[in-house]
Amino acid sequence: MLVSxxxxxxxxxxxLVAAQPTSSAWPIGTVTIVASTAxxxxxxxxxxxxxxxxxxxxxQSFVIENRPGGNGxxxxxxxxxxxxxxxxxxxxxxxPIAANPHLFKSLPxxxxxxxxxxxxxTDSNPLVLAVNSSIPVNSFSEYVAYAKANPGxxxxxxxxxxxxxxxxxxDKAAGIETLQVRYTSLAPSLTDTLEDRTTSTITTLDSxxxxxxxxxxxxxxxVGRERFPTIPDVPALEEIYPGIAMxxxxxxxxxxxxxxxxxxKINATTNASLKQPEVxxxxxxxxxxxxxxKTPGQVAAFMRDETDRWGxxxxxxxxxPQ
Length: 322
Known about the structure:
globular; disordered N terminus; single chain; 10 strands
């Protein structure tokens, strides 16, 4: 009986070891990358670029499953509870990881403990402040002066959380008050600004560039830490008000306790793909900056720093978890 029990225990142990893939066995069939945003968004497109390279490299399909909603909570929850075998990954923006802990009293996942950091997809996705051409301003200083001289005249269209929060951050730093109009998607926020129902919008660079070229909108400032490479004449908010700039970013994560060798394998391939000139060019066209040089440990440290940063800025705005 004792021998039988021991043999049974050893067999279970062998099965458990076999169930945990190593870098030599991984991937076993299709790998699912759960994206926290909808199809066609900047995050979705950037993630598909990476997925395409991973598919080509490992001869297995890396498919994107878009699960938007709940400020990224749905996608993050699903991956946090998945098996840590490298077969289910998460493409996340800053909201599920850095912002949600400060916005929600309760989450169905722990941003600090339930994920394995793998790679940066984009290091920076700065937004821009663009105004309708009917507004007689051509610089940020003129924008602030106009707001102070015309109280109640300016309204800002922001889609998503980052746009809305940055509108409030900018108002507080400049000592002005503009009406912050929050939208759930980009298209109507942009349309309302183009049609002068709102006077400005904080949005993605790629979405406004055609209208800037056509003279319908004017770029006032990049809402980021640095000037964006394709618009070097447009100042960055950090130059004007140091310490308040907030930028979006996208990361590739897995469930907690993923095998280290699989994490390192995905990290190396993702970083190599992001350094390819054609990928760099495509990312710049999306309004994103990528370096492809962070280790998993550096990604984890970056997310911790950003979580602290979001906490401070939201606290300064008086925004409390709900």
